[in-house]
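Memo to structure team: turn this sequence into structure tokens by end of day. - J.P.
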Amino acid sequence: MKKLKIYLDTSAIGYLDENTSPREMADMLALWEKIKQNEFDVVISDITLEEINRNRNPDKVHVLNEFLSEISFDRVVANAEAGRVADLVKINGMLTSDKHLNDRLHIGCAVVCGAEILVSLNFKHLVNVKTIKGVRGIAISEGYGYIEIMTPAMMINGGE
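Reply from structure team:
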């Protein structure tokens, strides 16, 4: 059976070490175990890696990079095509502020690389009805196929 191709954004990886949110951390750690067991084809972008490494807490940077060393993943670059999809997100009224550029690029990278699911815990910008429906519509109308935005909890509970 073909494995699901998932894109992990920075928020998802960040919750691997987020003691202030024990439920979300536990969900991400449970998903991480499935990832380590090679249940998914994982994609991470240069945007995600840059955001992780720009964290002001060097201990957190070290811990998250240790987690990343446990898995295999494909690295994608936020290229012009991903930028075009990111622009479509903005044109369609989502994440319109310049400060949301990286969120739009996460979407662009996930769509362009053919991920079926963008895993995120960014509830304010990504995991909400407006963005989920809008991104799905853009991906389909632009010929990229179907993509869903889900939390780790949704992933470990079989997408329920």
